[in-house]
Amino acid sequence: MADPMKIRAAMSGDKVEVKILMSHEMETGQRKDAKGAAIPAHFIQTVTATHNGKVVLSAEWGPAVSKNPFLAFKFGGGKPGEKVSVTWVDNKGDKRTDEATIS
Amino acid sequence: MNSSRRQVLQGTTGMAVMGMAAAAGLFKPGSAWAQAWNKAAFDTKTMADTVKAMGGSGASESKDIVINSPDIAENGAVVPFTISSKLPKTQQIALLVEKNPNSLVASFTIPEGTEAGVTTRAKMGQTSNVIALVKADGKFYYVSKEVKVTLGGCGG
């Protein structure tokens, strides 16, 4: 199981600014190891952020997103104390969900 | 960035695709897929093909899309990008790097109520045009800029 995400959700004016740092190797499948064998691709494919059960951002990623991906966005309608939940799923079927409280 | 390195990269693409297909076969129906991953779009090599894979027919240039990124990236493995769109009814924002083995980096679906702007970090194999593709009100728009890379992001 992958390490937890670091999620910050803070009010910025009337919007909620969400910053997410995920821990994932994001292996492209293009690289080779010391013996010349291809390193299999391993990367996050989908990311979904929800607030009060409503999806506020969904993303599809390819292997060209950087290692330990960072993602930031803003959405409206959130209040301090409410929770934002983020889930990612990678190409091997691993997934992880973490939550943060809006401050 | 010599030509033999290019060939090595291209030679491994097929294997990578097979690996992904094998991994995809492991999924049970109805498992964790909250949304489908548009494999066709991520296999494309040009913007025109990406637009087609996303269900569009073409894209027009728009000044209402802004790419915020360094003009020169010292480390191609981590190039920060902020893409924002002022187009009304922006539904989708995608980031493409023209000279990467597969051009589409990431695609974001923007529901109503969410600001049409995302920040993320991408890998770039070499100096290339970067394209922000936006779907707004059912139509595709784009803007592009060149980002110079002094150290590639694909090698190990």
The third-level CATH topology of chain A is Immunoglobulin-like
* Quantity of strands of chain A, as a count: 7
What name is given to the CATH topology of the largest domain in chain B? Answer: Immunoglobulin-like
Number of domains of chain B: 2
Q: Give the ordered list of helices and strands of chain B.
A: HHHEEEEEEEEE
Strand content of chain A: over 45%
Strand order of the largest sheet of chain A: 4-3-6-7
Q: Into which percent range does the helicity of residues of chain B fall?
A: 10-25%
State the name of the first-level CATH class of the largest domain in chain B. Answer: Mainly Beta
**Number of structural domains of chain A:** 1
Task: Give the overall pLDDT of chain A as a whole number.
Answer: 93
CATH class of chain A: Mainly Beta
Question: Globular, elongated, flat, extended or rod-shaped: what is the shape of chain A?
Answer: elongated
Rg calculated over all Cα atoms of chain B:
16 Å
CATH superfamily label of the largest domain in chain B: SoxY domain
**Strand-residue fraction of chain B?**
35-45%
Structure notes:
- The complex is a heterodimer of chains A (103) and B (156).
- Chain A has 103 residues and is mainly beta.
- Chain A is built from no helices and seven strands.
- Chain A has a single domain (6-27, 41-101), classed as Immunoglobulins (Immunoglobulin-like).
- Chain A has strands at 6-12, 15-21, 44-51, 54-61, 70-76, 83-90, 95-101.
- Chain A has a four-stranded antiparallel sheet, with no helix packed on it.
- In chain A, a hairpin with a 4-residue loop joins strand 6 (83-90) and strand 7.
- The radius of gyration of chain A is 15 Å and the shape is elongated.
- The model of chain A has no long low-confidence stretch (mean pLDDT 93).
- Chain B is of the alpha+beta class.
- Chain B is 22% helix and 38% strand.
- Chain B has helices at residues 3-25, 39-42, 47-53, and strands at residues 59-61, 65-68, 72-73, 79-85, 90-97, 104-109, 114-122, 128-136, 139-149.
- The longest helix of chain B has 23 residues, at 3-25.
- Chain B starts with a helix and ends in a 7-residue tail after the last strand.
- The relative contact order of chain B is 0.21.
- Chains A and B meet through strand 3, strand 4 and strand 5 of A and helix 1, strand 4, strand 6 and strand 7 of B.
- Strand 5 of chain A pairs antiparallel with strand 7 (114-122) of chain B, so a sheet runs across the interface.
